[in-house]
Design brief:
With 211 residues, the protein is an alpha+beta fold. Helix content is 75%, strand content 9%.
Length: 211
């Protein structure tokens, strides 16, 4: 019974408010407080900005809904989300451009594979040339070390220039070994990247063919 009385009072309040607004011929504001209780007012109160409100015309129709004011934390979160979405969109556009350039550069899958093989061949050639140079340096070092050993056996001092050449060769040999190892690692990495690139090429070409 009490609920019915309260509901009836609210209906009367709304009817009276509507009639007042209609008689005065201007919009009114409807909003709810923290407890969810509805309020109607001719002047927009500060609390309505906090929780959001509706603008009601003299006929009682909602003509505009205004969301509640966001907290600084919510505004910061919205900004971060917008920046993240913009970054994702930019990356997507960049990828689409790269895909178009890839299809233009390699009209067929065979063209792409030929290019990949050529790049791997360049690495192989570089390694082979470095290995040949390394073998020559190792041979020279072996000869110098043998000469130094002969001098030492005969009780003669090893000349400073010979020792310096030996030291320089040792450093050079270690550098070339490291270079060859790096190039072999580069070839392995490139081969894996080319596999992924080829798979992506096939996907892009399939999409282009279906459009």
């Amino acid at each position: 019974m009490r609920k019915q009385v309260i509901f009836g009072a609210l209906v009367l309040l709304f009817t009276a408010s509507h009639a007042f607004g209609a008689e005065n011929g201007h919009n009114r504001y409807k909003w709810r407080d923290a407890q969810g209780n509805p309020h109607y007012d001719d002047v927009l109160p500060e609390e309505a900005l906090k929780y959001g409100y509706d603008v009601i015309n003299p006929s009682g129709i909602v003509v505009k809904h205004v969301e509640r004011a966001k907290t600084p934390e919510e505004l910061a979160a919205d900004k971060a989300a917008a920046e993240k979405a913009a970054t994702a969109k930019r990356l997507q556009d960049d990828q689409l451009t790269k895909d178009k350039q890839m299809l233009a550069a390699y009209p067929s899958e065979q063209d792409l594979q030929n290019s990949q093989r050529e790049q791997l061949a360049v690495i192989d050639q570089t390694v082979q040339a470095t290995q040949a140079s390394l073998q020559n340096q190792e041979k020279s070092l072996s000869e110098m070390l043998a000469h130094a050993a002969d001098l030492d056996r005969t009780g003669k001092p090893v000349p400073a220039t010979l020792q310096q050449q030996i030291d320089v060769l040792r450093v050079g040999i270690e550098k070339q070994k490291a270079y060859i190892a790096n190039k072999n690692a580069e070839k392995e990495t490139s081969a894996k990247r080319f596999e992924a690139e080829l798979a992506h090429y096939r996907e892009v070409q399939a999409r282009a063919g279906s459009q």
